[in-house]
């Protein structure tokens, strides 16, 4: 029904963004809301509309290929929209495609809600069917060199807290997040919520 929406991003939360278009605020759930910024410039978001008995939900993506991979993932038994968002949240779906093509279950089971059965189903359903997707790595916004911790206190703690809220919403457990928290707190190169999100996701996928 909808292909994309062009409007101004008015609000960014740990689960969704709000885009205003023709005086209507559209609530759009995204893999990583913090890749969007609240600003006056018009931004384009590719849309997938998910219809349930109790709700009509909009899911948004930066690129067509992200949306198409999302649509393929939710066709796999055991993966719903929330699980597909968690898989896409790292900003590097190319790793997911590579894992499916190489039948690397050990990587796939690291995503929230993906067990061995679901990982195997992903491979059976999607292997050989993702070659037309040309998803590129997203670039992490560079940190500000002049932001340094004062007296051992992380001045970006609120950004880390926002990132953890978003990761919790994607399905990661408190135990998993506490395990990687020290590494994130001492990383002085991170100064955006998006950066914390991406670094956290990399740690989560390599720490198990």
Automatic annotation (TrEMBL):
It comes from Ureibacillus massiliensis 4400831 = CIP 108448 = CCUG 49529. It is found in: Cytoplasm. Residues 71-90, 106-125 form the Helix-hairpin-helix DNA-binding motif class domain. The lineage of its organism: Bacteria, Bacillati, Bacillota, Bacilli, Bacillales. It comes from the Bacteria. Homotetramer. Forms an RuvA(8)-RuvB(12)-Holliday junction (HJ) complex. HJ DNA is sandwiched between 2 RuvA tetramers; dsDNA enters through RuvA and exits via RuvB. An RuvB hexamer assembles on each DNA strand where it exits the tetramer. Each RuvB hexamer is contacted by two RuvA subunits (via domain III) on 2 adjacent RuvB subunits; this complex drives branch migration. In the full resolvosome a probable DNA-RuvA(4)-RuvB(12)-RuvC(2) complex forms which resolves the HJ. This is Holliday junction branch migration complex subunit RuvA. Has three domains with a flexible linker between the domains II and III and assumes an 'L' shape. Domain III is highly mobile and contacts RuvB. The RuvA-RuvB-RuvC complex processes Holliday junction (HJ) DNA during genetic recombination and DNA repair, while the RuvA-RuvB complex plays an important role in the rescue of blocked DNA replication forks via replication fork reversal (RFR). RuvA specifically binds to HJ cruciform DNA, conferring on it an open structure. The RuvB hexamer acts as an ATP-dependent pump, pulling dsDNA into and through the RuvAB complex. HJ branch migration allows RuvC to scan DNA until it finds its consensus sequence, where it cleaves and resolves the cruciform DNA. Keywords: ATP-binding, Cytoplasm, DNA damage, DNA recombination, DNA repair, DNA-binding, Helicase, Hydrolase, Nucleotide-binding. SUPFAM superfamilies: DNA helicase RuvA subunit, C-terminal domain, Nucleic acid-binding proteins, RuvA domain 2-like. Residues 157-208 are annotated as: Domain III. CDD domains: UBA_RuvA_C. Belongs to the RuvA family. One of its GO terms (molecular function) is four-way junction DNA binding. GO terms for cellular component: cytoplasm; Holliday junction helicase complex; Holliday junction resolvase complex. Signal peptide: none annotated. GO terms for biological process: DNA recombination; DNA repair.
